[in-house]
Write a structure and sequence with these properties.
Length: 361
């Protein structure tokens, strides 16, 4: 059901960010919080997060003995260990994925793939086909080293913009590896496995990508390997998914050509986002793929896709919140996914910032 609401008014995002900021802990050559200095890198640079949310050797946790009490029924907790990385996307402080050409996004995808490969369990079916990788890889600058334990899952994500809690505009993302399977990927994986069992071995997102490509109503952009859609079940006004059209379990399944096509569709989605309201469009973006360690069924049923969750509603200064009925009952659409997809389809072409700069010269 589509509903109408005014949303929250916020200040528009400015675009006067310098190409280099001497106080930025991500710019080449600058000092980070832990005292290390960044190398003079060109595109990607990887290092262990100075403020890691999960650690390889966390403080030991021992749950209290509550056997036979109500606490033992309701209050369950367990420790999670892992390793967190930061990945810069470019050396220039004032660029975003929307500013980058697909050829400049390819090194980012290759960096993600190298880190994913280096953390794969040797027992994973993916390890048999993944390219051999060690840390630090020779393909990019990194301060990363192999983890001390085998982790269950790797979440690759980017928060763009202050509206999504990102305090540093330097183009970068994060990677968290954890000893447990997080809730959202776990819920998705259960549905993917169920569909695979009930539909004679078919893969849910491969079938869904085929449906959307046939209907074209919610399609934003597609190429021979990927499709970008505003999904039928979307909650956020301009929520988007990039889905592999063929069954690909993880980054390691992609050919060189498919990596280039993935870079193309990421560029298309992020550029259209910025063009929509002519602003630095905020979002949270995350890759979902096969766990680092899992059963053969879990690995086989996983299907690579990317979620984009943007908060903007109807302009650069109006933000949507999930409140009231949407929190207490169920989310509602402010615009339909078909309307959102049509608007994003119409926002292709040159990035508005480059077009404006060209007219001013």
């Amino acid at each position: 059901m589509a509903v109408s609401g005014r949303g929250q008014q916020e200040a528009a995002t400015g675009t006067t960010v310098p190409p280099y900021d001497p106080s930025c802990y991500l710019c080449p050559g600058n000092k980070r919080a832990a005292g290390d200095f960044n190398p003079d890198y060109n595109n990607t640079f990887v290092f262990v997060n100075d403020y890691s949310a999960v650690k390889e050797e966390p403080t030991a946790y021992k749950p209290p003995d509550r056997d036979g009490t109500l606490s033992s029924l309701f209050l369950h907790a367990e420790s999670v260990n892992g390793k967190c990385y930061v990945v810069t996307f470019a050396s220039s402080h004032n660029l975003t994925l929307a500013d980058l050409d697909p050829c400049d996004i390819v090194p980012i995808i290759n960096t993600w793939t190298d880190l994913y490969s280096a953390h794969l369990s040797p027992s994973s079916p993916l390890a048999k086909t993944a390219s051999a990788t060690t840390l630090p890889p020779s393909s990019h600058n990194t301060d990363a080293t192999l983890p001390k334990a085998q982790y269950r899952y790797m979440q690759i994500f980017e928060n763009k913009g202050t509206a999504m809690g990102c305090s540093n505009p330097h183009p970068h993302g994060q990677i968290w590896t954890t000893s447990s399977l997080p809730e959202e990927p776990a819920l998705e994986l259960e549905q993917l496995k169920r569909y695979h069992r009930e539909q004679g071995g078919c893969h849910m997102l491969e079938d869904y990508a085929s449906l959307e490509s046939d209907q074209q109503e919610r399609t934003i952009f597609e190429n021979s390997a990927f499709i970008a859609v505003c999904p039928w079940w979307a909650t956020w006004p301009f929520e988007t998914m990039i889905i592999s059209r063929q069954h690909r379990r993880a980054l390691t399944d992609f050919s060189t050509d498919e990596v280039s096509l993935l870079a193309e569709i990421i560029a298309e989605v992020t550029r259209r986002y910025d063009n929509l309201f002519e602003t630095q469009f905020p979002y949270s973006m995350g890759l979902h793929q096969a766990p680092l360690e899992g059963s053969e069924e879990e690995i086989e049923c996983s299907h690579f896709h990317i979620h984009f969750y943007p908060p903007l509603l109807r302009s650069a200064t109006v933000r949507k919140f999930l409140v009231g009925y949407e929190m207490m009952a169920e989310p509602q659409r402010d615009i339909t996914p078909e309307q959102a997809a049509e608007r994003l389809r119409d926002c292709g072409g040159v990035l508005y910032r480059k077009s404006t700069a060209g007219r001013q010269q």
